[in-house]
Give the backbone structure.
Amino acid sequence: MSFLLLVVRWTQHLLTEFHGLKHQFKRILEKKFENQELNINADLNNKTRMLYNHMKQLEQTLQTVLSKKSFDELQSYLTKIDHSTDVNELKQKINDLIDTYIKIIESLEYVEQQQEEIDRNSNRLVSIKNILERLKELNAKVSHTICIIGLEKCGKSTYINALLGYDLLPSDSKRCTQIRTILKPPMRDNPNLFATAKFYNDSEFGNLLEQMKRKDDESDENFQLRKKQIMELRSTIVSKYPEGEQRFNTGSGGGGSVNAGGERKQVSEYIVGESYVNIIKELTIFTDKLPGKNYELLDVPGFDSPIKEHRLAGLQAIKSSDAFLYLTDGQRPDLTEPQMVLLNEIQGENHYEAMQRAFGIITKLDLCQTQTKFNDHFLKARDQLIEKKFKKEHIFAICSVLQLLKQNSEEFTVIQDKIKNFGELENGFQKSKTALSQFIECELPKTHLKQLVDLAKNELLRYVTDTLKTARKILPINPTEETSIDTYIKKLNTEKWDQVYEEERFQPTFAKANFWQKTQLTENRSKFIDETKRIFHDRFRALAMEAPEQRPQRSIKRLMFETYGFTPLHPNSHPPEDKIREKLCFELEKVVLRTSNELTQHFYDNYVCKLVKILNEICPEDNGLYETTLSLEICKIETRTLVTRVCGPVIAATLRFSQSDAKCRQAAVDELILVAPTVAYNLCENNNSNDGTNSGSGIMATFSSLAPTLVKGIELGLGIFGRTGIQNRLTAEVVKMIFRRII
């Protein structure tokens, strides 16, 4: 316990000393703070400078890319874009603008992160950034996708057949296309490839099978039989094509435009056959009849299809396409509710500027019997499309069936004679192909650029202006002045130093040091005491037991006979024995001192030095800021004083005087009883248990037998050293009564 109090006093001295240097540390660290030598200071300054740089960049954008002059130049460039414009140069300009706008958004996002109580627009900024990244992706595409959409039975299949030049997709009123179909230019590395069919995997097929609906007039037995037949059919197909794809080849080039024969018949069967709806996931047909070589047409099932996956696939196709053809039935010119829902979905936020790339195709107007009826249906359908934000120049009335008939056939002549007075219906199909090709080659990049300009003018400019207003509340300096940021940071550092030092340097370090001290010396007190006893016991015993082994063992008799000055008839053993005891006591005291020093070293390394290390965390940049005045030598002196106060009387009482020096021996015992009565009692008990077995080995044997007793005695003495003098005197009187009976 006395050692524990000693270490507590040392550590408390360190804490008191550290607290007394608080203001001195503050002055030293303040200079480092001003010179930006502290990590916390660098973080704070870096944040301020980063905010300043972003503000400066935003200010510059108002004078450059977001200025009225820049927008006017872009608008003028847009009006001059035509077929003679270098498309690569146009695309590069678009990419450069997108990169610039994305950097502006990153600056806006950083400034918003520094705002705490101000309303943020982060969600809208993320949305704009996504639009820019999507435009960049579209601008970089080599092959473009045009989606063909419309409700079921609106003439999509006939229109696609007209593009192919032959009947492939079902066009009768009883069967609608419900399989996703892609039309692509012929593959350069495989020109004989006519088509590919991709199948649903097991998981997708299982989900579709569960969602199958029974027909109105179909019994449950027939419904289950139909399911079973579909499963058997799929099993047969998958066994033939385990890779999940079937490829159709022709014997001639041209992407299967001629002589497709049985291959075309099989593809048509996949499209027409009702059983294949839940087996075939996607059909790709390669043809050279498309109005361009750098894009593909995607036909998705009707948006009023009963299959949910088909409707979702259609919406996703529009979102990812570069343009889309919206087909509507001219015999039903009024837009139905499903059509309105579809167009509203297309015009939503997920399809930014979708109507800029929309084409309206009015079908089946060749079924009108009179010119008046044609005009009525055409104008009504066109006006409703314009009302839904279709461009007038992107709306065409077509007669798809005329493209599938031979020009010298009777049916071709009848239809041609009938529609020759129906405005531009006769040439509408070709005009739609030409307009589509021009849009892809020229208008599509132009549309992307226009979207960028509108986005920057209507969105980014406002955000930059509003963000700069709020940013000046956080950083009230003028970004146009080069020296203003340095002056501001210096002033900010001065104003915040008191708070920074107290809350982020001194107080956390001092609290951690106090917590460590209490944990080690209060909470772990038992561990400290046990460890101290073990270290003192092990080192003292080892050093004490070494002493007699280093000298020759000689008996008192031999030493007495070797002594000059005594007659043979009157030998006296007292003088040699007294010298041996005196020498042994000196050596034992040296052992105690060495043990004390080693114990002190242990205390100093594990408590003083560790606490100094924790306190130096006040400045990790300079680990030697705090140096304690409590040296190892001072600690050794204090520990030695504590140890020798107990150990000296123990050694004197047990070893120094022989049995013939009764008075000296009694005086030493009395001193030991006063200093450490419990030690005296335990020594007495230990000697009684020996039963006088010390004879025969001389003083050395006595010393060896007393070594464990000395160790125990010293340990007990040190353990009760914390008692007051009154307590020791009371205990001493009790112990004296016991000793009188023994000595």
